[in-house]
Amino acid sequence: MPTDTLPLQGLSAQEVEASRREHGVNVLTPPARDPWWKLWLEKFDDPVIRILIIAALIAIVVGMIDGKYAEGIGIIVAILLATTLAFLNEYQAAKEFDILNRTNDDVPVKVLRAGVFTTAPRRDLVVGDIVHLEVGEEVPADGLVLEAVAFQINEARLSGEFKPVDKFPQGHPAPPGEAGAYPRHCVLRGTIVVDGYATVQITAVGDATEIGQTARAAAEIVSEESPLTRQLEGLSKLIGVVGLGVASFTLAALIVRGVLVGELTLTPPQWYFSGILGLAVALALVRVWLPIVYDAAELVRLPLKRLTWLEGDNLLGWLLTVAASLLFGAAGLGFGVLTGILPVSAAE
């Protein structure tokens, strides 16, 4: 289009680069996400999963006595399948969401630069750019209406009002009626053109837009628990406590019954080895059962101070716990050999 036919010229290439350096790119900063291993470990916070882990350990310990491990191993396999599939689904959904956002940032927008209308990806728009918007298009960034013909915007994404809002250039007399949530001469990123067309000058891009500031403020707000959420959390804790109690009682009952009826006949070295092994496994899984113990104390209104290293599910904490359990097991077995409780070799 010839330059002399356009009353507006738009930005030159040098002005575009200068504006981008000053105001940034037209991309919303995605919220910070936890690393994949932390997302996977969070799946084990479910009280039902913790109960199944304890049940699997009981089945394996009991299986060590009579040589039947299939049930315990089957439970562990089921736990790993359930948690891993849930993690993979959530992780894949997050990746697809990121791809969708990147695709939206590449949507072409009609922009006037150096006196010529052209198209540019939405991410490349800068403050000062002049864009042309038509029916069905999404507003790519915040801006001021310069020219408009029967121009209407749906601002439901920001204001919640589904009724289209008429937009006019600044200084144009607004029709009588209720004022909208935002000025009539302004358009905002993320809103939809439902009628007419307009020429708009960009005034804010990326995180500086209204929707960018709203998203950032929403991410910083600490959500308050509703009464229903507190009740569900209490029920979840109760299920975990009851499950752990039943599992512990079942293990103790099976051991006592086996001893009384003569089904569980172990030599002193075997009892010692089983005890060390059981304590090492319990130490390795302290992050699983100790929070349930704290929940039980909370339910009976017994104040117990939670250990700070149990608050966060981080990979280093789990590795340290497993390492401590291995050291405990090795120390216990070494002590047994040194004191003569355990034989030095299997032949003895």
List the SSEs and their pairings.
Elements: H1 13-23, H2 36-42, H3 47-66, H4 70-105, E1 108-113, E2 116-121, E3 130-133, E4 142-154, H5 156-159, E5 165-166, E6 186-187, E7 192-204, H6 210-220, H7 227-261, H8 268-284, H9 286-299, H10 315-338
Helix pairs in contact: 3-4, 3-7, 7-9, 8-10
Q: How big a fraction of the residues is strand?
A: 5-15%
Order of helices and strands: HHHHEEEEHEEEHHHHH
End-to-end separation: 98 Å
Q: Low-confidence stretches at least 5 residues in length (pLDDT < 50)?
A: 1-5
Q: What radius of gyration results from the CA coordinates?
A: 32 Å
Total of helices: 10
CATH topology of the domain at 3-26 and 107-219, which one?
Calcium-transporting ATPase, cytoplasmic transduction domain A
Principal-axis shape equals elongated
